[in-house]
Amino acid sequence: MSRKVLITGGTGLIGSRLSELLIDAGYEVALLSRHSEAGRVRRFRWDPEKGQLDPAAIAYADYIINLAGSSVSDGKWTDERKRDIMDSRRKGTNLLAEALGRGDHHVRALISASAIGIYGDTGSQLLHEETPPAQHDFLADVTQEWEQAARHVAALGIRTVIPRIGIVLSTEGGALPQIARPIKLLAGAPLGSGRQFMSWIHIDDLCRLLLQMLEEPQWEGVYNAVAPNPVTNQEFTETLAAVMHRPLVLPKVPAFGLKLVLGEMSEIVLASQRVSADKVLRQGFTFEYPHLGAALESFYTKEE
């Protein structure tokens, strides 16, 4: 049986690790990319901005994993950056939906990424997949548009899974190296009140989860892709400092200071999101790293 997976955003943090995992599991992998440089993985061209997509890409795929989207944490949120963050997700996913709508393919499932940013800043409330999206919140607006585009594919009768991804832990990129850097330099401190909840997931658990979503037909609809034990920012900072054998010597970094430096982007680190993993657990997924301490040790004890 043919097992060909087409990945958008395949050179990013999640896509790179996921490609390795899929190839190890016996899948053929190709990337949908704006650049066609040679690598060990086949590439098809697309340009969501211009509405261009190589038709051979859709014809190739048995499964599509849609991870494409501009990073929300690279640089201040100027109007231009915000437009790029929104368009890179909405236009890319809509382009896939249009291509799939033409028929003449054998795509069995689409896994289209989303993010827990859809819930906004919700304090200590436990958030489930049914929790309504936040209002008047940029990241919530982005994720709603992203999910809506993926639902166009579901409407075609193609099995569609929408994982709402939390803070992905990896030393290769994302939030963790940025949080660890000041701790390494003995300048680590909780951010804002430190009471805001962080819902995280180890990169390997996330990639295993995406693989299970791809392989098992009972996965359909929206799932929170987070580990079962969210922690406050203070707990996260203290656990990371302990794992790295560094003291925390500074007081908390005040929220107003972060807003001054980061502008609206400070929402990423100041918003509180306590997200439930119950639905993923009920569906039969087993986390290798359900607790933060072991997840962080998997990265930092290797460096000792």
Task: Explain what the structure shows.
This protein is an alpha/beta fold and 304 residues long. The protein has a domain at 4-168 and 201-226 and 276-287: 3-Layer(aba) Sandwich (Rossmann fold). 39% of the residues lie in helices and 18% in strands. It has eleven helices and 15 strands. The chain has helices at 13-24, 55-60, 79-101, 138-154, 175-184, 203-215, 233-243, 255-262, 267-270, 278-282, 292-300, and strands at 4-8, 28-33, 42-47, 52-53, 63-66, 109-112, 114-115, 126-127, 159-165, 167-169, 197-198, 200-202, 221-225, 231-232, 274-275. The strands form four sheets. Strands 1, 2, 3, 4, 5, 6, 7, 9 and 13 form a nine-stranded mixed β-sheet that branches. Helix 3 (79-101) links the parallel strand 5 and strand 6. The chain is globular and about 60 Å long. It starts with a strand and ends with a helix. 41% of the residues are buried. The model has no long low-confidence stretch (mean pLDDT 90).
What's a quick, concise take on this entry?
The chain has 304 residues and is α/β, with parallel strands linked by helices. It is built from eleven helices and 15 strands.
Give the helix/strand layout:
Elements: E1 4-8, H1 13-24, E2 28-33, E3 42-47, E4 52-53, H2 55-60, E5 63-66, H3 79-101, E6 109-112, E7 114-115, E8 126-127, H4 138-154, E9 159-165, E10 167-169, H5 175-184, E11 197-198, E12 200-202, H6 203-215, E13 221-225, E14 231-232, H7 233-243, H8 255-262, H9 267-270, E15 274-275, H10 278-282, H11 292-300
Parallel strand pairs: 1-2, 1-5, 2-3, 5-6, 6-9, 7-9, 8-15, 9-13, 10-12
Antiparallel strand pairs: 3-4, 11-14
